[in-house]
Amino acid sequence: MTNTMPRMRAGFRAMKAEGGWGVVCTGYVSVHPTSDDSPLPYATLWDENDVRSHALMTNAVHAHGALAGVELWHGGGSVSNRTSRLPPLSPSGVSWMATHVGFMGNQRSKQMEAVDIKNLLHWQAEAARKAKRAGFDVIYVYAGMGYLPYEFLLPEWNRRTDAYGGCVANRVRLVRELLEVTKDAVGESCAVALRISLEELRAKPSDRAPSEAHEVVGLLAEVPDLWDVKMDSSPTDCAPSRFTPEGSHEPVIDFVKRLTSRPVVGVGRFTSPDTMVSQIKRGVLDLIGGARPSIADPFLPRKINEGREQDIRECIGCNICISSWHDSVPVRCTQNPTIGEEWRRGWHPERIAAAGSDAAVLIVGGGPAGLECALSLARRGYSVSLAEAADKFGGRLRFETSLPGLSAWGRVLDWRLGQLQRLPNVNLYASNKLSVEDILGLEHQRVVIATGASWTCALYSTLEIPVGELAGPDVYTPDDIAAGVQPAGPIVVFDFDNYYMGSLVAEQLARIADSVTYVTPAGHASAWALMTNEQPQVHRALANAGVQLLTLSRVIALTDGEAVVANLFTAAKQRLACRSLVIVGVRAPRAALYDALVARRDDLAAAGIVSIDRIGDALAPGAIVHAVHSGHRYARELDSATPGGPYRRDVPIIDAPPLLYDDGTEERSAQ
Ligand code: ADP
Ligand code: SF4
pLDDT tens, 165-197? Predict the structure, then answer.
């Protein structure tokens, strides 16, 4: 949430401190305008406004007895300085070349001169002093993820011939000096930590040690007060559960503790207390770090302490949270709808206001939206009935968790159902497909429609205008696959949903059909999944499954066992053998029940029903994260006023200089 939303940020981090996390760290905090990652949401410590902004967070964290850590950061050749317009700096003028759509830039970096290195050390020391004034207890040097100190460590980036390049001892010099200047600046009262990526270094052989990673850690062993060890790129560091299991960093970082007496902290989507305990007991780590686990459940440590493991809302590894960083918006989470809403909406993950009336609430549809709504209403004390047509709860999760790699997503259902089953004021009715007459007869005052959405066969033009449907006996949607249909091959999967469903359906169908071709108008398969760090592995998964790939293309017709495919830009046509076409395009709300109910206005009043509302996909189709938030918001807002709009708006902390007109005169207020 950066310095532009300092109160939201403080509320977000304070919640983790309240939940029992011992140290609460910032995300990356730039030390100087030569490190400008805009439009991505990075924080800054450049001036006194920034000090005051961060102090909100450190005070809030300290109030709960936790320490506050700050990740001081220089992005080097990985940033484009789009706002500051200063030349990026790198060891040898080598820049980060993002090959994925969305993160590209066209500003390359300048090779650092001796004076640039001197300046960098000065900026780090200055930022450390500011961090101390802001109240931080643990101050980081950040040598990870392609950022500047990391670039000095790797020979591919660092081709210098001076004292900072060449042998490992030289390449480590900058990191050592950054640690030393930080210690000189604040070391007597703050811990100085080193966050370092070890994946590439561990793969590099060394004459003096088992790998260059061992050599680097050996050379710096006792210099930092704390080692914080991790992987090298966002998709491997913050890996999605679709492709990577919990605790996946261990093979890369497991040696560090043997080379230092300093404590070592690591991450890797730890969700189960057993995995955490195992890594501590086996001497892999001293301290457990968690970004996603602390987002999905800020109260995870407290729940472990209190022996309430069954109450932990485990992260599902969907990486919607990381997509909020890529989207440059406040953090979102599929499992925890309250995250990011602590300050602006006043939502607490463990507390919720008591019911505002004695209304009984009927929720129709037991998918993510209905389940979350039922649970939150029941926690408020409402009498809740949740009816689901299918014999099992879960909605879309029933099918989606059966797709390759998505079983962990089942926690969205399991956690909610487990909590609901322990509440006395909830009635759960599976195998109950409710009709209008049923609902009119059930004597509930509030009715919530959470009936979800259906996939359609709608097609769009190159101008992205709807141009009708491509229906027919050989045309299917993911709903058909969910219902158990096994289309005959050769199969074409036409995906313009661009998230996970298209590539997963193709991967799944490749297990039963000889020939599956995945066609998309996007440049990549599952193009939006770049946002969730899944996309880089999707092409590999499709290749491994034997799926053919055709990008920048649209299916425009299905005739005589062939799909007619047009190039997005040239309209050049080609024909693909196709007995079955699966369209993974847009979803439409299942609106029939809601529409029929609201048409019976008089009968509703006679039945004592005072409101009918829609939530989740039945209201506006989206990802699971949207449905959960929608269900939660309904529950929070029932019988409660939200004065002044849906939420409080945050503003930066600014000791503003007067604005100037072009002629140099100061702008005065209207007074
Ligand atoms: P969301 O993501 O918004 O929760 P889902 O599609 O996951 O939506 O879930 C909607 C659920 O509603 C499905 O499990 C579906 O079986 C159920 N449902 C749809 N119509 C009815 C109905 N008339 N009565 C009971 N349940 C219904
Ligand atoms: Fe975990 Fe998904 Fe929540 Fe991120 S958004 S913390 S990956 S459940």
Answer: 999 999 999 999 999 999 999 989 999 999 999
CB contact at 8 A, 96 and 53 = no
Residues 184, 554: Cα–Cα separation, whole Å: 61
Check if the beta carbon of residue 29 is closer than 8 Å to that of residue 9. Answer: no
CA 335 – ligand 1 centroid, Å: 19
Residue located nearest, by CA, to atom 5 of ligand 2: 333
For the CA atoms of 595, 598, 600, 601, the dihedral, rounded to the nearest 10 degrees, stands at -160
Q: Cα separation of 118 and 127, whole Å?
A: 14
Tell me, yes or no, if 476 is annotated catalytic: no
Å from CA of 513 to ligand 1 middle: 30
Looking at the CA of 447, which ligand is closest? 1
Distances in Å between the alpha carbon of 111 and those of 184, 302, 505, 670? 27, 48, 47, 49
450 CA from centroid of ligand 1 (Å): 6
**Helix spans in 234-291 (H):** 234-237, 250-253, 256-259, 273-281
292 CA closest ligand 2 atom index = 6
**Closest CA relative to residue 163, chosen from 247, 91, 218, 104:** 91
The torsion of the CA quartet 21, 27, 31, 36, rounded to 10 degrees, works out to -170
Pocket test for ligand 1, best of 362, 373, 388 (most atoms within 8 A of CB): 388
* Nearest atom (ligand 1) to Cα of 618: 3
Query: Residue 6 pLDDT more than 80?
Result: yes
- The answer to whether 398 and 383 have CB atoms below 8 angstroms apart is no
User: How is 579-590 classified by DSSP, letter by letter?
Assistant: SEEEEE--EEE-
- What does R_g of the chain's alpha carbons equal in angstroms? 27
CB 35, CB 148: distance < 8 Å: yes
b or e along 47-62 (b: 16 or more beta carbons within 10 Å of the residue's beta carbon)?
A: eebbbbbbbbbbebbb
The 8-class DSSP code of residue 530 comes to G
The predicted-structure confidence for 371-417, as pLDDT tens digits, reads as follows 999 999 999 999 999 999 999 999 999 999 999 999 999 999 999 99
Nearest CA to ligand 2 atom 6: 292
Task: Give the integer Cα–Cα distance in Å for 253 and 256.
Answer: 6
Assess contact for 316 and 241: CB atoms under 8 A: yes
pLDDT at 430 over 90: yes
Q: Which amino acid is at 108?
A: R
Euclidean distance between CA atoms 398 and 392, whole angstroms: 8
Ligand 2 atom closest to residue 332's alpha carbon, by position in its atom list: 5
